[in-house]
Amino acid sequence: MNKIMNRRLDPERDQTAARIWKQRTPLSSLRKAIDRGSVTLGFLGGSITEARPGHNWPEKIVSWLVERYPNVRFTVENAAIGATGSNLAIFRLERDILRHQCDIVFVEYAVNDYYGDQERRKRSREGLLRRLLVESEADVVLVYTYLQAMYAEMITGGVPDSIAELEQLGELYLLSSVWMGLYAFNEVQRGRMNWEEWLPDGLHPTHRGSYSYAESVIAFLEEELEKAPGDIAVHEETATSTLITSRGGIVPDGALPEPLNKRHWGAAQIIPFYDVQLEGPWTIQRSANVVWIDRMLTTSAIGAKLRFRFRGRGAALGFEFGRLYADFRCSIDGAEPVEIKPERAEWCPLEGLYHVEVLAEELDEGEHVAELEIVHGNGMRCEGTRCRIAFLASLP
Question: Which of 20, 24, 199, 329 is found 20 to 30 A from 321 (Cα to Cα)?
Fold first, then answer.
């Protein structure tokens, strides 16, 4: 196994290795955790990464680690959620990753951010990564899965925009990355795996495809964990000495490089429910459907309203979603209300999705007031008036 993995990581023997594996920073926190005998693994991403199917690539990596280090206790914090992107992860980061003090966090949003607004995903991704560096001691590894829309660029040797943008962040913040999708793509091209073994439904791997994704990450982990401390080469031209020496621990915000996007969402703030003014029959309840939501502001009354103040340039709303859920009418600073109609795709279930909606993001910097009113969308696949709000937040 070791010889096979080492061959795959040798750029001189495998032309694609340098594109699949980018080793930018030693896995200092993971190595220390293994030495002390207790490791917490964190995962962020979408349905390709989430734990619910029981066969996704994180399961294979965990199994490999447990076998390789039988005397180490591993705790898994898989916070990936299907049909969600980095624009929701930034608001869940404290609850689902930071408070668990992970030793390594794998971030997989190349696919679920693919069709999102490009400027918005740049803001949410960079804010997410900066917070991970500033507020945790975890090693952060970027991983990229595959979406069929990437085929045209990848077959000609190109890099899809969604991945190229993440690679820019990897270079700036010295985050290692593994292009799992390219590794699996190459396996199909070489005849090691059939396409339908990889992606039976065109997007979601089952056991064989997930093993391929995991194999690429295992190769990276094996290579890194076998190295003596300090052996890894660092791209000094993209780094500051403060950042390099701080890795393996919390990096002060002032030690980070200037952001690529000055409007990143790293300073987004959750607004407490007790600061929200309510009109109509609202209650605060626990979620019965979404394990990622603790308490919710709830109503099913058409015309129920809420009002909240926020400081910054924008605001966002996180809520449980499905065909049984209401639409919203939103007004900012007394302006004419705008109806918010989240898309209900054909596959949209009755309930149980976790959705984020940006209410505004290009306001003048300062204090603002947002008002929401619950409405029945009266449109395709809008079949109810439930409203279950997980959070309200300000955007910088």
Answer: 199
**First-last CA distance in the chain:** 48
- Do 171 and 311 have their domain in common? no
One-letter amino acid of 79 = A
The 3-state DSSP class for residue 12 equals coil
pLDDT in tens, 34-77: 999 999 999 999 999 999 999 999 999 999 999 999 999 999 99
> What size, in residues, is the chain?
396
Calpha distance 38→103 (Å, rounded): 9
Please say which residue of 246, 265, 284 terminates a domain: 265
Number of structural domains, the chain? 2
Do 170 and 294 reside in the same domain of the chain? no
Output DSSP code: residue 301.
-
In angstroms, the CA 74 to CA 71 distance is: 10
Q: 212-241 burial by CB neighbour count: b if 16+ within 10 A, else e? A: bbbbbbbbbbbbbeeeeeeebebeeeebee
How far apart CA 2 and CA 5 sit, in angstroms, is 5
| Range(s) of the domain holding residue 374 | 268-395
Q: What is the pTM of this model?
A: 0.93
Report the alpha-carbon distance of residue 336 to residue 316 in Å, rounded: 18
Facing residues of 176 across strands?
141
* Confidence bin at 244 (pLDDT 50/70/90): very low
As separate numbers, helices (DSSP H) first and strands (DSSP E) second, the chain gives: 12, 17
Are 197 and 185 in contact, with CB atoms under 8 Å apart? no
Q: What is the DSSP letter of 13?
A: T
